[in-house]
Amino acid sequence: MSVHVSQSAHKIQLWRRLGSVQYRDSSLLQRQHLSSFSSKADRNDDLVTLEASPDTGVATLRMHRSPANSLSMEMMQSISGAIRKAESDRKIQSLILTSSLPSGIFSAGLELTELYQPDLARLPKFWESFQQLYLDLYGSRLSTIASIGGPAPAAGCMLSLSCDYRIMTDNPKCTIGLNESQLGIVAPPWLAQQYIDVIGNRNAELALLLGTLFTPQQALTVGLVDELVCSGDSSIDEMAQRKAAEFIRIPPKARVAAKELTRGTQIAKLSGNREEDTEFFCSFVTTDTVQKTLGSYLEMLAKRKK
Ligand SMILES: CC/C=C\C/C=C\C/C=C\C/C=C/C(=O)SCCNC(=O)CCNC(=O)[C@H](O)C(C)(C)COP(=O)(O)OP(=O)(O)OC[C@H]1O[C@@H](n2cnc3c(N)ncnc32)[C@H](O)[C@@H]1OP(=O)(O)O
User: What interactions and quaternary structure are annotated (predicted)?
Assistant: First the structure.
């Protein structure tokens, strides 16, 4: 086992060094005209806002990476940083995760330019930031509530799955689910497991195969969200606050211990397997087949917009 781990660590080092090497597949070097998908690194400083209220014990983490709260490496690090900041304040017991984008989009999942024709030096760090975000949110001592006012596909769904409670706007245009298979990729095992834990094995199996995006009503039926709020009703924030207060009434030690009961094993599993997970991701996502499918998906998104 230890030999396997050290070989794996060696491969990750190789990935990092490969950063200076250009991506080799010539068909992929001919960049298509996907002008709206061209950004990579962004500034860390204005992607999220954390509002802590020591009086109520509730902090609200608002995501506002325009246009769709897609998760670039910096975005994931900013969310992780805000979670840790809220946790370091002993007066805070609950965290509401929401979007403050005017479009209402909760999160469009991983930033696709991080996956398509990736920067090879950045790729392992990008994935490690995704793992870290899962560990920080899923393993938080805080009670966490996702207030989902808009679409939450793929890693956007992961953000909500990592919370303790999910409230969603009842607008059929706002869909949620792990749609990775539609992009020619697959959710990592730790994310698939969250899905199985929340919606059950058969529902998860079908939804993962088909890349299903559930409407809010369907999501409520399968248990992917816990509560719906009428579309256009501003009370989603109030409902989240009310739920947070309900969680806060439970003695913190008991609440945290209860959470550990259901999440501890999965958290320990990924914590002990991060390098292999990163290695697998880097190898998988850079294959020609995956890159071609991602390219087509990006084109489809751009055309749909036109
Ligand atoms: C061990 C593991 C092994 C292997 C694992 C391998 C891979 C990793 C696997 C899984 C983890 C998770 C993966 C992901 O999260 S992949 C991302 C999936 N996301 C999507 O499919 C969503 C795509 N977007 C949409 O469907 C729509 O944009 C959305 C419904 C969110 C909003 O629709 P709306 O009509 O309101 O707006 P649009 O005009 O479509 O978009 C606005 C704006 O935002 C840009 N955009 C949208 N999504 C993304 C994205 N994910 N990344 C980057 N940019 C995005 C879109 O281009 C528009 O931009 P602009 O033209 O500049 O306005």
Answer: Homotrimer.
Would you say the CB of residue 67 lies under 6 angstroms from ligand 1? yes
- Sheet with 143-148, strands from edge to edge, namely 48-53, 58-63, 94-99, 143-148, 165-170, 227-230
- The interface predicted TM-score (ipTM) is 0.98
Q: Which residues of the chain have pLDDT under 70?
A: 1-45, 232-234
User: Does residue 133 contact residue 76 with C-beta atoms inside 8 Å?
Assistant: yes
CA of 155 to the centre of ligand 1 (A): 9
Q: What is the pLDDT of residues 110-136, one digit of tens each?
A: 999 999 999 999 999 999 999 999 999
CA atoms within 13 A on the CB side of 181: 13
The pTM for the full model equals 0.90
**Separation of alpha carbons 292 and 116, rounded Å:** 9
Class of domain 43-305: alpha beta
Å from CA of 245 to ligand 1 middle: 33
Binding site membership of 187 for ligand 1 (Cβ less than 6 Å): yes
CB 168 within 8 A of CB 112: no
Closest C-alpha to ligand 1, atom 25: 108
| Residues paired with residue 59 on neighbouring β-strands, in sequence order | 52, 95
Amino acid identity, position 136: D
